[in-house]
Write a structure and sequence with these properties.
single chain; 370 residues; alpha+beta; 2 domains; globular
């Protein structure tokens, strides 16, 4: 990997035009998708391709709490209105009485957007796509090149609406794709967590809003809103309760890691929630409390997953039988991507091992073995 790639990224963050927070949102979104190790990422020759739908989802989740906040957090110098602000505020208003941010995220990922809100959601998605592709994608890199779209390129894709179900998969399948050079993908893969961490994008974003507010806002206030997660403690508890209810019907419960029969157990996030804010049912598995305490925030090794594969698949099949719609939606987006439904178990295990290996080898999380 060439050193000038890292230098160019630094220049983009520090020197590219800062009239809005769109540049930060685009870079943060791409990095988050890479850090998620999305199965929809594909590599062709010297470029890496991503669904624009995943980026649209990220922008919805980034800007929702900012616009919902009762305190004005400027995102544009000298202006209050984002290009998609009217559309997003309409969605925020409509969800205010039916669960707010968390309910919106749950509908987007699992249940599907309610029919009476689909037109407004579609308008928001279309506006976000136009904003992303004609503004930050076009101008990022102008500090290192005179060309437009010098780093990001996109293919429009179809905006067809041949389904009654409007959700994240709909965005992924209909919004087209974008690509970046392979060397930038490699740089974001290695340094992405640092770039989007305290020393860079998120804090630069917060600093921008603080300065734009003429110092009327504190950095802490802005950061707390920018980092707000749509997944609440209640959501985690409800998912674990769903799991326990299913296991109660099963009778005997075996620890997924040791294979021992257990009468009391923890429902463990296989990939720790602190590492990846993922509350999917496939990521929840029963574990002996003592073993779970030993694991804590460590990442299961690919070999451990291989050794525990039969039990993992047993619990996946059990959840799939009892919560099929939610399970299938979640595992397709997180692990299966465009893999065929035939032999999904093998593909999901392979992607799970890849994600864990990535977290260990590339992001430096501690490996866990028994």
């Amino acid at each position: 990997m060439r050193n000038d790639v890292f230098q160019n990224i630094s220049k983009i963050i520090e020197r590219d035009s800062k009239t809005t927070t769109y540049k930060f949102a685009l870079l943060r979104g791409v990095i988050d998708i890479i850090q998620d190790n999305s199965p929809f990422i594909t590599i062709s020759k010297d470029r890496v391709y991503f669904p624009i739908g995943l980026l649209i989802e990220k922008w919805m989740l980034y800007y929702y709490p900012i616009l919902e906040c009762t305190t004005n957090i400027p995102q544009i110098n000298g202006e209050l209105n984002l290009a998609f602000g009217i559309q997003l505020k309409k969605i925020i208003t409509e969800y205010k009485t039916i669960g707010g941010f968390s309910a919106f995220y749950n509908d987007l990922k699992n249940k599907g957007i309610p029919k009476n809100l689909q037109e407004d959601f579609f308008a928001l998605a279309k506006k976000l796509k136009g904003t992303i592709t004609t503004m930050p994608m076009k101008y990022i890199g102008r500090s290192i090149s005179n060309d437009y779209y010098s780093i990001f390129q996109f293919e429009s894709g179809s905006t067809r609406r041949n389904t009654n179900e409007i959700d994240l998969e709909f965005l992924i399948n209909t919004s087209g794709s974008f690509s970046i050079p392979f060397e930038y993908y490699e740089a974001f893969k290695i340094l992405g967590s640092f770039i989007s961490g305290q020393d860079s994008i998120l804090f630069k974003w917060a600093e921008f809003s603080v300065n734009a507010s003429k110092q009327n806002l504190s950095l802490e206030k802005v950061v707390s809103e920018v980092l707000k997660s749509p997944i609440t403690e209640r959501d985690v508890a409800e998912s674990k309760q769903i799991y326990k209810t299913i296991l109660k019907k099963e009778g005997q419960v075996l620890c997924v890691w040791t294979g021992k029969a257990i009468t009391s157990y923890d429902v463990d996030h296989m990939i720790p929630f602190s590492v990846w804010k993922n509350n999917d049912l496939w990521n929840l598995l029963p574990s002996q409390s003592k073993t779970n305490n030993q694991k804590r925030d460590k990442i299961p090794s690919p070999d451990l997953i291989e050794n525990s594969k039969d039990l993992i698949l047993h619990y996946w099949e059990l959840i799939n039988k009892n919560q099929s719609q939610r399970f299938q939606k979640e595992i397709r987006v997180a692990l299966l991507g465009n893999s065929s439904n035939t032999g999904w178990q093998k593909a999901a295990i392979k992607q799970l091992q890849s994600s864990c290996n990535y977290l260990i080898a590339n992001r430096g999380y501690e490996e866990w073995k028994i």
